[in-house]
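User: My collaborator sent over this chain with a note saying "see what the structure looks like." That's all I know about it. Can you take a look?
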Amino acid sequence: MKRRDTTIQTPMAIVLAKTYLAKLGFTDFINRHVTWDRKQVNLTPGQLALSVVLSTFTANRHPLSRIGQRFHGMDTELLFGKGVTSSDFSDDAIARTLDKIHEAGSAHLFSQLALSAFTTFDIPLGNLHADTSSHAFFGEYEGCEDPAYEGMDVTYGFSKEHRPDLKQIMIGNVVNSDGIPLVHQALNGNTADCTWNGQVIGTLSDLLGERLKDIVYIADAKLVTEPNLRLLHQKGLSFISRVPDNFCAKLAAQAKKDAYAANAWTTFGSMAEDKKQAEYEGYSQVHYLGREPMRLLVVKSSAARDGFLARLEKERSELARSAHEVERQHFACEPDALAAAETLRKKGSKGLFRLSYTLSDTTTWKRPPGNPGKNPKPPVEIVTWQVRFTITENTEAIQAAKEQAQSFVLVTNIPSDKLDDRELLWRYKKQHVVEAGFRWLRQPSMASAIFLKKPERIEALMMLIHVALMVRALMQQQARLRLGAMAEAPRIELNGQGLKSPTADKILVLLLNQGVITDRGERYYGTTSDKDFERVQVLMKLLGVTEDELQMEG
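Assistant: Without extra context I'll predict from the sequence alone. Here is the result:
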C-alpha cells in the first residue's frame, strides 16, 4: 500500500464506522427485513439507512433534510458502492426508507442487529443496565391527538431535559457494562420509568429465552415496585436496583436506621483507581418483600458525606449572614425588635440549626441643633433596641440529615454467596454507562437530526441513530480490549502520551485529521506526518480492522 502526505478526502472515522457496519452485514440486514421493490429504486433501503448512520460520524451539522451534503467531496463509492454519489441521498428517498423501517418494527430490528453484534464480536451479555431519557420536540404533532391514532405519542410528560413546555418522546435503552446497547425503544412522551421497566423485562425474556437466567438486570429506583418485583421473580431474572424512599412503608429509612444502629460497616474503599474518588462502606441485611427474601445493602459514601458537610456549612453561613443583618439594625421600640428576632428565629430553626436571641436597649441623649442661647431646650432621650443572636447546632436533626444524605440502599435477589457486597455496589455503579449514551444523543448535531414531523419517522430515525451509538460503543470496547492485552500503552495521544482506556470520542478525535484519499481510482492514506501514519496503523490494530476490510483497492 502506498502512503503519501496530503489532505484527507474521506475521513478515516467514517471509513472505520462503515467497516464495523459491514462486519455486521448492516446493509443486507436492512434490505432483508424491509419491504421494497428492487425495480423502483436507485439505492437500496440498506444503502439509504447506512447514509443516516454514517452521517452521525461526520463533522458537519446539517439537518436530516441535507444528508447528502455531509458526504459532499468524499468517496461515496468506497462508503456505499459503485456508482453512488452524494446527490443520490434525496429527502424523499430517505423518508421512504424511514417509513419502511418503521413498518418492519424499529425496536425489533434493532434488537436483532444488536444480538448479531454481540455474537460477531464475541461479547458476553453479563450485566445489563437499563434507563430512560426524554427528547423534546418543537411542533404540535396534532395527529397524535386523533382518537384513532395508535402509534408513538409525541406528548407532554416528565422532562429529563428540563423542557416541560415542549412535547417529547421517551427513549428506553438497555446496554451491557461496556455501554453496547441490546434494546432500544422509542416510547410515548408520558411513559413512566416504572411502567417501562415492566415492559422491557418482558422484551428481554422474549429476546433471550433461556439466556435470561445468565444476566443481571440493573436499573435505578423506578424499577422497584411490587408488580415489577413479582415479574422479576416470575421470570427468574436476577436484578440490582436502589430502594426508593417511598417504597414499602419507608423500607429504605428503616434499613438505614438498622445499619447505623448496628454500626458494623464493611469497608469497600474506592471503586476506581483514582485515589481522589469516593470511599465506600456498606452494611448488608435481609428483608422479606412479600414472600421473597431480598438483600438490602446500605451504602455510605465519603463524597456524599463531604457534600452534606459543605451544604451544612453553607446553611450556617447564610443563617449567620441573615442574623448579622438584623443585629446591625437599631429598632425604635422593643416590639419591633422582638418581631424581627422572632421572624428570623422561626425561619432559621426550621433547618439544621437553632437560633436564640437577647434584646438590649441603649439610651442616648440628643441635644437640639444650633446655639443653645439663653434658654436652651432640654436634650431629648432616645431609646433604641438591638438583637443579639446565638447559633447552635440541632444535633439530632444534623445527625439524621447526615445519615440520610450520605447513604443509599441497594436491593438485589442475588444471594451473598454468589455476589459479595462490594461487587454488588461495583456493578450498580456501572449504571452510568447508559447515561453516557444519552449524553451523546443530546449533542446539537443529533438534536437537529431528529427534527421530524411524523412520529413514525422519528421512531425509525432514533433506531438508526442508536445503531450509530452501538458502533461507537463497539469501537470503544474493542479498542480497550486489545489495549489491555498490550505490554505497554502505545504513545499515540496528541500530546505524545500513552493511550489509556480510550473513549469513543477519544478515538474519533485521534482520527480527526486522518483519512482515505481517492485519486483517479487509486486509494491511499492521507496523513500529514509519519506520526499520524503510525497513529492510524495503531488505531486500526486496536479496532481489529485490516487494510483489506477498508477496501482500499479502487
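A starting point for your reply to your collaborator: DSSP finds 19 helices and 15 strands in the chain.
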